[in-house]
User: Which sequence fits this backbone?
C-alpha cells in the first residue's frame, strides 16, 4: 500500500491507501464517536454518528466507511458535523426505552449508586459496597443513620409491595467496615502543589475537602466548633447518630490527607481576606447555625425561649438548657422531632409539638413522627403561637391561634389560615422554636449575599463574587436542606474547584440519562417479598436515655433486604457508547418525542438476554455473529419502525455454540444485550 497524507483537526496525519478516515484518526489519537463500528467486522456506516466535514466537499462523510484520500482536510467537530451528530443521537434516544440509572440513584441528591452498593450487600461484599458509595459520599455511616432517604420514595420495589430499605442497608454496610483493618481505602492522585482552604467542618465542607484531597491538592478544613462534624455532630441527637460514628468517619477523611483545625472562627481569629490569601482556592461551607425566630409577641421578653438548633447544640456540648417539665416545640420538620424527643430524654414530663398544619403536611420523616408519638409527645395540630406569656421574667404559657387549612400554597401544601377569634392557652416552662435555620454571615462581609442573607453562589460553578472563592451547602442560594443535599453539592463543587486549579473552570452539567416510564403492571409477575423490619427498642426504655433507638440490620437481614432489589438501572451504563456520546453533546431528544417501540425482553439466546427497547439497530450483533462467529444466527426481522433483531436456531448444536460464544454481547454499543449465564 502507498502512503497518503491528510490533515485532521489541524493535525498532519499519515495513512495507507484503503484505510478509512476513522482508522487514520484513531491511530493519531483523534476521537470520532461511532456506534455501529467494530474493527472485527466490515465497514457499515449505519448510525450516522461518525460524520465529519471535508473541505471542498458539500456533503458530510461517514468516517467509519469513507476511505481516506491524499490531501484531505477533515474537521471532526465542525458545526455541520456536530449538528448532524446531535440529531442522530436525539433520534436514537427518543426511541430508547431503558433506564440508564435506577430511579433510586436519580433521586439521591448526591447521586450515589444505590443499586450497585445494594447488590454488593446482597452478595455479601460490604467492602466493595463501601467503595462504590464513597465515589460520591465520604460519610456513608453518618448518612445511613440520619438520611430521610428520598431514594426510597422513588424505589420501584414500591410498585410491587414496599421500597427497599436503602438507608438501613447503607448504615449496615458502612458500620460493618468502619473498624475493620482491611477496609477499603482510597488512593490519592499525585500532589499538585495547590492549596485549598475549606471553611466549615460539616457534611458539605468535609465532602469537598475529601474529594479535593484525593485529587492531589493540599487541603485544610477550618471550623469554629471544638470538633468536626457540623450539624451531624451538633444538630442531630446521640440516639439517632452516635458521636463515635462521626468521629470514625472524620478520622477516615483525615487519613485521606485532609488537615483539620478546630476553634478557628473567621472574623475572630483571622480575617476572611487573610484566610483567602493563604490558599489557591477556598470553599465556604459554613452552614446555617442560627435558629429562625417565631415572630410572635413576647418572644424576646422572657427566659425559656430557645432556638431549635441552639437547644440541640447545647445538649451536644453537654450544657443543656433548663427547659423545665413542660416543653412546647414549634415546628413540623426533623429538627422539631429531634428537639421534642431530646426534651423527653432530658426528663420533661410533658412535651408538645405545635404545628400549624395537620400530620399529613408535616415535612418530618414519618418514622420520626411515629417514634415521637410512641415516646409520649403530644401533637397539637392546626395551632400556631400567637403570644408567649410569662411571669417574673420567665415563660409560663404560650397562647395558640387555632388554624384551619385553606388553599394550597406554592409547594402544593394547603395553606393554614387563622380561625378568627379562636385561641387556646398551653401552660409550659419553655418554648423551643424549630421552624427554620438562617446563615450567620458575620466575618464574611466580603461575600455577596442574596436578599435572604444567604451567600450568593453561581449555580453551575459554585463561584462567589470573589474569583477563587466557592460556596456550597446550607449557607448558599436556597438555604438549609438535608445533609445528603449539601454533600451532593460539595462533591460537584470539588470537581469544579479542581478544574479551576488546573487553569480552566469547567461548570457542572447535569448528565443526560434515559428513563423508562413504568407502572405496577410491569412488575405483576414479581414475587411479593415483605420489607425486612428492624426492631426498635421499646419506647418506655429508649426515651430514658440517648442510646440508639435501634441496632440496625444484622448481616442476614441486610442481605435478605438487599436481595429484593429489582436492579432497574442498566447493567452496561458505565460502558455504554450511546450514553457517553449523548453526554458529549448537549442533546434534546424530547424534540422528537413520540411513540416508542416497546418489546418484552427476549431470552432465546440461551445465556444472553436481549432488551429490544434498548436496541438501536446498529446491526453489530448480526454482523459479528455472521462475520466473526461464522454462525449467522441473528437477523433483522420486519420493515420500517417495527424492525427488530431476532435469533433463529437451526438445531441444538447452534444453541450450544451460542452458549459459549457471547461475541455479540461484547460488541453491543448499548445495554441491549446482557450476559445472564
Assistant:
Amino acid at each position: 500500500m502507498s502512503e497518503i497524507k491528510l490533515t485532521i483537526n489541524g493535525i498532519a496525519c499519515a495513512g495507507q491507501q484503503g484505510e478509512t478516515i476513522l482508522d487514520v484518526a484513531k491511530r493519531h489519537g483523534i476521537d470520532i464517536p461511532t456506534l455501529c463500528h467494530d474493527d472485527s467486522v466490515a465497514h457499515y456506516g449505519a448510525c450516522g454518528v461518525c460524520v465529519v466535514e471535508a473541505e471542498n466537499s458539500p456533503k458530510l462523510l461517514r468516517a467509519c466507511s469513507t476511505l481516506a484520500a491524499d490531501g484531505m482536510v477533515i474537521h471532526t467537530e465542525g458545526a455541520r458535523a456536530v449538528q448532524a451528530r446531535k440529531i442522530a443521537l436525539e433520534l436514537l434516544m427518543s426511541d430508547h426505552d431503558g433506564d440508564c440509572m435506577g430511579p433510586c440513584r436519580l433521586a439521591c441528591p448526591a447521586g450515589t449508586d444505590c443499586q450497585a452498593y445494594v447488590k454488593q450487600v446482597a452478595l455479601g461484599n460490604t467492602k466493595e459496597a463501601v467503595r462504590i458509595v464513597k465515589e460520591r459520599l465520604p460519610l456513608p455511616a453518618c448518612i445511613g443513620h440520619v438520611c430521610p432517604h428520598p431514594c426510597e420514595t422513588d424505589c420501584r420495589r414500591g410498585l410491587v409491595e414496599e421500597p427497599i430499605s436503602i438507608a438501613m442497608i447503607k448504615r449496615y454496610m458502612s458500620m460493618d467496615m468502619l473498624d475493620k483493618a482491611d477496609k477499603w481505602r482510597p488512593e490519592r492522585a499525585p500532589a499538585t502543589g495547590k492549596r485549598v482552604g475549606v471553611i466549615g467542618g460539616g457534611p458539605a465542607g468535609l465532602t469537598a475537602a475529601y474529594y479535593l484531597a484525593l485529587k492531589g491538592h493540599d487541603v485544610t478544613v477550618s471550623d469554629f466548633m471544638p470538633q468536626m462534624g457540623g450539624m451531624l455532630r451538633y444538630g442531630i441527637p446521640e440516639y439517632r447518630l452516635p458521636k463515635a460514628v462521626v468521629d470514625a468517619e472524620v478520622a477516615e477523611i483525615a487519613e485521606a490527607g485532609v488537615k483539620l483545625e478546630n476553634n478557628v472562627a473567621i472574623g475572630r481569629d483571622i480575617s476572611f481576606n487573610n484566610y483567602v490569601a493563604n490558599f489557591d482556592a477556598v470553599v465556604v461551607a459554613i452552614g446555617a447555625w442560627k435558629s429562625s425566630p417565631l415572630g410572635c409577641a413576647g418572644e424576646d421578653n422572657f427566659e425559656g425561649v430557645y432556638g431549635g438548633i441552639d437547644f440541640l447544640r447545647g445538649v451536644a456540648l453537654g450544657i443543656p438548657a433548663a427547659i423545665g417539665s413542660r416543653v412546647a416545640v414549634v415546628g413540623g420538620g426533623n429538627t422539631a422531632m429531634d428537639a421534642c424527643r431530646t426534651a423527653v430524654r432530658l426528663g420533661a414530663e410533658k412535651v408538645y409539638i405545635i404545628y400549624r398544619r395537620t400530620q399529613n403536611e408535616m415535612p418530618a420523616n414519618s418514622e420520626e413522627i411515629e417514634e415521637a408519638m410512641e415516646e409520649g409527645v403530644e401533637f397539637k395540630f392546626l395551632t400556631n403561637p400567637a403570644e408567649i406569656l410569662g411571669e417574673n421574667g420567665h415563660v409560663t404559657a404560650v397562647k395558640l391561634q387555632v388554624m384551619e387549612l385553606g388553599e394550597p400554597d406554592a409547594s402544593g401544601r394547603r395553606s393554614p389560615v387563622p380561625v378568627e377569634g379562636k385561641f387556646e392557652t398551653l401552660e409550659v416552662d419553655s418554648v423551643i422554636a424549630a421552624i427554620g435555620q438562617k446563615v450567620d454571615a458575620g466575618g464574611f462581609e466580603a461575600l455577596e449575599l442574596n436578599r435572604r442573607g444567604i451567600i450568593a453562589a453561581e449555580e453551575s460553578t459554585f463561584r462567589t463574587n470573589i474569583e477563587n472563592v466557592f460556596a456550597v451547602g446550607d449557607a448558599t442560594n436556597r438555604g438549609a436542606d438535608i445533609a445528603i443535599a449539601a454533600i451532593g453539592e460539595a462533591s460537584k463543587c470539588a470537581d469544579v474547584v479542581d478544574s479551576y486549579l488546573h487553569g480552566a473552570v469547567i461548570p457542572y452539567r447535569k448528565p443526560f440519562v434515559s428513563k423508562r416510564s413504568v407502572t405496577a403492571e410491569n412488575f405483576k409477575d414479581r414475587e411479593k417479598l415483605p420489607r425486612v423490619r428492624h426492631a426498635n427498642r421499646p419506647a418506655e426504655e429508649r426515651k430514658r436515655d440517648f442510646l440508639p433507638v435501634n441496632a440496625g440490620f444484622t448481616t442476614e437481614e441486610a442481605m435478605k433486604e438487599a436481595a429484593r432489589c429489582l436492579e432497574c438501572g442498566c447493567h452496561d451504563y458505565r460502558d455504554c457508547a450511546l450514553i457517553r456520546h449523548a453526554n458529549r453533546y448537549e442533546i434534546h431528544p424530547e424534540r422528537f418525542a413520540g411513540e416508542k417501540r416497546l418489546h418484552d425482553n427476549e431470552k432465546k439466546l440461551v445465556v444472553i438476554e436481549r432488551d429490544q427497547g434498548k436496541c438501536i439497530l446498529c446491526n453489530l450483533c448480526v454482523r459479528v455473529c455472521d462475520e466473526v462467529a461464522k454462525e449467522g444466527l441473528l437477523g433483522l426481522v420486519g420493515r420500517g419502525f417495527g424492525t427488530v433483531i431476532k435469533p433463529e436456531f437451526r438445531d441444538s448444536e447452534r444453541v450450544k455454540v451460542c452458549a459459549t460464544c457471547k461475541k455479540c454481547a461484547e460488541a453491543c454499543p448499548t445495554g441491549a444485550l446482557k450476559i445472564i449465564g
